[in-house]
Design brief:
Blueprint: H1 11-61, E1 81-82, E2 88-89, H2 98-104, H3 108-111, H4 113-116, E3 129-132, E4 136-137, E5 146-147, E6 150-151, E7 170-173, E8 179-182, E9 184-185, E10 190-191, E11 218-219, E12 233-238, E13 243-247, E14 265-268, E15 274-277
Parallel strand pairs: 3-8
Antiparallel strand pairs: 1-9, 2-4, 5-8, 6-7, 7-12, 10-11, 12-13, 14-15
Length: 294
């Protein structure tokens, strides 16, 4: 009698199984990718919430005045600076120079760090494109922090009581886009201040519009990567502490224009970078602390 032998898969059966696995992978991999991005987005929302609440705690402890978007080194206002603010070279970055340390300690992410106890919350994990401005870590000192969350620099030194619409004024945003700044922080937008011996505080457009006067004008930095950090939008935290996802009209390019009441950037380029910003005669419109938007 013939012996029974174990029967293996035929070539056709193997090919069918492989084809089924390939089809399932093609279906499931995008789902897994979306799930990962949703997890990153949740982390970003949590980080923005923590930074917004930490900033508001700072405000309560400092005479209801918002922290600086940037500090002064004793001779000039500066729009960017080291994070953390001591311990690295080259000079004029994270340094032990007393003027620079004093100035950099005023910067938003450094100023509110005692309330978060964690520099990690200034980074959104979706902001993967890095702009590294260099620098060498000094022995025994903390290394450079990567930061993607940005501060509304028009709030610099502004009194909380002057904010007329806490539910619509941005406090914490992702205004570098899908990228982070390594070792430095910079507010976006920021006040233009030239006279170091004068305060650098927001002044309403109704009072005039001269770049020679501190706080009468403001501007913005270009993005590190596309504006759509999560799909076609990004996370916004507001003065009342709430955080929400805001969709941008990334398909609107020149000569088209977005709605200035619902979007800070006037249009975008083909790569999804903002190419223009809505401004009144003096200021980046959407971020003004004394105006209520719908």
């Amino acid at each position: 009698m013939p012996r029974n032998r174990p029967r293996g898969f035929t070539l056709i059966e193997l090919l069918v199984v492989i084809a089924i696995i390939a089809i399932l992978a093609a279906i499931l991999f995008p789902v897994f990718a979306q799930a990962r991005e949703k997890a990153r987005q949740s982390s970003c929302i949590s980080n923005a919430k923590q930074m917004a609440l930490a900033t508001l705690q700072y405000v309560q402890d400092y005479d209801e005045t918002f922290p600086f978007g940037y500090g002064t080194n004793g001779s000039v206002w500066n729009t960017s600076g080291g994070v953390p603010f001591v311990g690295d070279t080259p000079a004029n970055w994270r340094t032990a120079n007393a003027n620079w340390v004093g100035g950099m300690s005023q910067y938003w992410s450094n100023a509110v760090q005692p309330y978060t106890k964690n520099f990690g919350v200034v980074l959104c994990p979706s902001a993967s494109t890095v702009l590294d401005l260099g620098g060498v870590q000094a022995a025994g000192q903390p290394g450079p922090v990567s930061q993607s969350l940005t501060y509304n620099g028009l709030l610099q030194g502004f009194p909380l009581a002057g904010a007329t619409a806490p539910t619509t004024v941005p406090l914490v945003t992702e205004s570098f886009g899908k990228g982070n700044l390594k070792g430095f922080q910079a507010p976006n937008p920021f006040l233009r201040c030239q006279a170091n011996n004068l305060p650098c505080v927001y002044i309403s457009s109704a009072s005039g519009c001269s770049a020679a006067n501190n706080g009468q004008t403001s501007n913005w930095f270009g993005f590190i990567a596309r504006a759509g950090v999560h799909g076609n939008g990004q996370t916004f935290g507001y003065l009342d502490g709430h955080v929400k996802y805001k969709v941008f009209s990334l398909g609107i390019q020149a000569p088209g224009l977005t709605d200035p009441l619902h979007e800070p950037w006037a249009r975008y380029d083909a790569n999804g970078f903002p190419s223009a910003v809505w401004k009144d005669s003096c200021h980046v419109y959407y971020f003004r602390p004394d105006v209520e938007l719908p």
